Amino acid sequence: MRYQLAPISTRPWLLNGLSLRLIESHYENHYGGALRKLNAITEQLESLDFEKTPAHVVNSLKREELIALNSTLLHELYFASMAFGDGRPTEAIAQALTRDFGSVDRWRSEFVAMAKGLAGGSGWVLLVYVPRDRRLINQIAGDHGQATAGGIPILALDMYEHAYHIDFGANALAYIDAFHRNIDWVSTQARYEDASKVEAPRPLVQKEFGDLPGVGPEEVKAMLDSGEPVQVIDARPRSYISRRRTSWMARCGAIPSASRTGSGSCRKPIPSWCFAPTDFTSDARRRSRCARPDSTPST
């Protein structure tokens, strides 16, 4: 796949306090550079024989691909986040920000504080919609690589020095203020509306264990504190594995041994198959092998 340079979304000559020279340099050199790098990495990956290529080479290329792809996508969003206007959110966005942050001013204070924290460094400040929670959050993305899993960015502020040094030098605060005066809230609302239509992911449920009682952290802690054997429930009814008392486990610092040569020995850990159901091990055979940690399993 070859990535194409997207036409610049904003009209640089209309922006308030951001020069045409700054925006053009940013677009051509940094956005364009990220996209050219992404295409070069893509070509390398397409030419690899993965079975013969060392793993560290593949990993390095995939890390570079992630950085270049995120840089490309976030730059496109950044340019689309700015337009000449009055800097005030639309009514719909103002309501969403008030719902999720308490007020528009509260959202802006957090967003600006995060941007100030990146001044003189590198990274992005993003307004992100999270379908899982049906809400907006502010997020920092460092080195193009960090992102909220499942989140959809709808507004992006580039805090790399290349985004402002031509106009503002080291005065990042003036740049942050200029960006806020130029936020394109109309297009941000459109992206928010699209993002809010994305369905929340289905709950992370394992239906094969639905007939077993749940055990929460407080229940596990209570069993450990009591010194009673911890019951590990098998996926099939009427079958369980009893482990050593917690005092014995604490003394060993490990899973109790399957073969014991003396008091408190932890020489051999219980095989992993004792704690996971398999299609080829019957309940009776499992109990004979795993029910007593101090016994030697049959072979």
What does this structure look like?
The protein is mostly helical and 299 residues long. The chain is built from ten helices and seven strands. The strands form three sheets. A three-stranded antiparallel beta sheet has the order 2-1-3. The longest helix is centred in the first third of the chain and has 28 residues, at 20-47.
Summarize the structure.
The protein is mostly helical and 299 residues long. The chain has helices at residues 20-47, 55-80, 91-101, 104-118, 165-168, 172-181, 185-196, 217-226, 246-252, 283-290, and strands at residues 124-130, 135-141, 152-158, 231-233, 240-242, 257-259, 268-269. The strands form 3 sheets. Strands 2-1-3 form a 3-stranded antiparallel sheet.
Strand order of the largest sheet: 2-1-3
Number of strands: 7
Largest β-sheet summary: 3 strands, antiparallel
Span from first to last CA? Answer: 53 Å
Would you tell me the structural class of the helices and strands?
Answer: mainly alpha
Using brief descriptors, characterize the structure shown.
mainly alpha, disordered C terminus, 3-stranded antiparallel beta sheet, 10 helices, 299 residues, two-stranded antiparallel ribbon, 44% helix
Secondary structure topology:
Elements: H1 20-47, H2 55-80, H3 91-101, H4 104-118, E1 124-130, E2 135-141, E3 152-158, H5 165-168, H6 172-181, H7 185-196, H8 217-226, E4 231-233, E5 240-242, H9 246-252, E6 257-259, E7 268-269, H10 283-290
Antiparallel strand pairs: 1-2, 1-3, 4-5, 6-7
Helix pairs in contact: 1-2
